[in-house]
Amino acid sequence: MVFIMSTNKVNIASHVSILTDLIDYRVGSVVSRTLIDKKTGTVTLFAFDEGQGLSEHTAPYDALVYVLEGTVDITIAGKPVALKGGELTLMPANQPHALAAKTRFKMLLTMIKS
Q: Looking at residue 92, which CATH number applies to its domain?
């Protein structure tokens, strides 16, 4: 797996944007693009190629996952959660979680730090 973090700043202030157009898939990769990065939290777009994922890990903050398109299997504290475009789930702080793309999928991840 290749993890690609976009360094291009996205200026979404006072503009109308289509989330799925702000990030592109790359074969065999996971691509991310940060939209908001503040002390209190972040909003990040991700594009996962089919079969890609993130191994089990924890984060010290709640993370809201909103799937924009495609399908993903998420495991949260050992419990499987299957999501498709238009669906969301919360990954609670300090709970182990992992993601596996069933198909190519894009998600918006909102992490709340306070």
A: 2.60.120.10
Count of domains observed in the chain: 1
Give the domain extent around 58. 2-112
In the sheet that holds 53-57, the strands lie side by side as 53-57, 97-101, 71-76, 79-84
- pLDDT per position as a tens digit, 51-90: 999 999 999 999 999 999 999 999 999 999 999 999 999 9
Q: What was the pLDDT predicted at 82?
A: 98
Q: Which residue has the tokens 């089919």?
A: 50
Phi and psi torsions of 64, nearest 5°: -95, 120
Strand partners, 111: 42, 63
Closest CA to 33 of 85, 88, 91, 108: 108
Burial (CB count within 10 angstroms: exposed 0-12, middle 13-18, buried 19+), residue 54: middle
**pTM for the structure as a whole:** 0.88
